[in-house]
Request: fold
Amino acid sequence: MKHSLFILALILTCLLPARSFAQSTTGLPWPADGSSSSNTPSAEEQQAKTTEGPNNVAFRNVDAAAGQMKSASEQAESQTRGIQFKNAVLAPEVEYRWTDDTSPGGFSGNEVSGSIAVDADVWDGLIMGLVYGHTHRDTESSLGVSEHLDSDAVSLYGARRFFNLLNVGLAYNYANTRDQLTRALVYNMDRESNGGTAFAGLSDRMKKWNWSSTASFAYVFDDYDFSLIKDRTTGRFGFSNTLGYDVTKTFNLGAAISYYNFFHQDPYGTVFARDDDYWMLGPRLTFYPMDNLTVHFGFDSQQGYKDLTAYVARLGVNINF
Reply:
C-alpha cells in the first residue's frame, strides 16, 4: 500500500508541472484547440458571442460609409463637366451603443464610436470621399469573461445620383482591431478586416415630405493574428427605408426602419452563428440652423437577433463648403 501511494504521488508530481508549462507557453487557460472543459467556457463560443452578426465591429465603418454615401449622392447637384472640386462636405458623427446578450455566456456592455467623413463632387456629379472611424468597446459575459476592444477603420467611397432619383455607390473598407478577452479567459482576437460595400436606392422630396429606400451588400474578411483562430468571411444584405416631414423650415421629423440578413457567416471552428438576421428601427430628427449646416440625431432599437438586443443613439453634423 505504501509503495502504491508513493508511485501515485510521483506520477502526480510529474504531471502537474507539465500542465503548468503547457499553459504558460500557449497563454491559454484551456486546451490550445479552443475546446471547453467543465470549469472553463469555450474559447470558440466566447469568440462567436463577441464577433458574430451585429457584434462584428467591422460593419460599424461599413454602415458609416454607406450612410455618408447615400447622403452625399442625394445632395449632388453638379452643373459643370470635367474635373472639379465642389460641394465639399465635412461630416463628423458620434455613436453610443448598449448591447445586451441574454444567452449563456453572452456579453453585455457599452460601445462608443466616432467617425469623420469628407467628400466632394469631383467629376460631373461623381462624389468621392473618405471616412475614418474609431470604436471602443467594454463588455462582460455571464461566465466572468471581459472584452476590451479598440478598432480603427477607413473607408474610401464613390457615389452618384441619376435622374434626380436613383442613388448608387461603392466603397472599400479596412479596419485594424485590437480585441482581447480577459479574466476567466485570456484570448487574443486581434485582426485586420478588408471588404467592400455596394448600394443602390431611390430617394425623393415631395413638398414637405422626403423618403428613401436603399438596398446594400457588404462583404468582410477578418484576418486574425492568432494562428489558432481561423480567418472568417461574412456577407450581409441590408434594406433600409426612411420617411421624413418638414415640421418647420429648420426642423424635419422622421423615422427609419432597416432589415439586415447575414447570408454568409463562416463558423468558429465547431461553433456556428446562432442567427442570421435582425431589424433596426427608430426616430430621426434633423435640424437646419444655417444654410451650410445640418445637425441630425437618430435612435435605433435593434431587435430580432436571437437573445441579442441593442440600443443605439447617434449625433452627427454635416458642414457644407
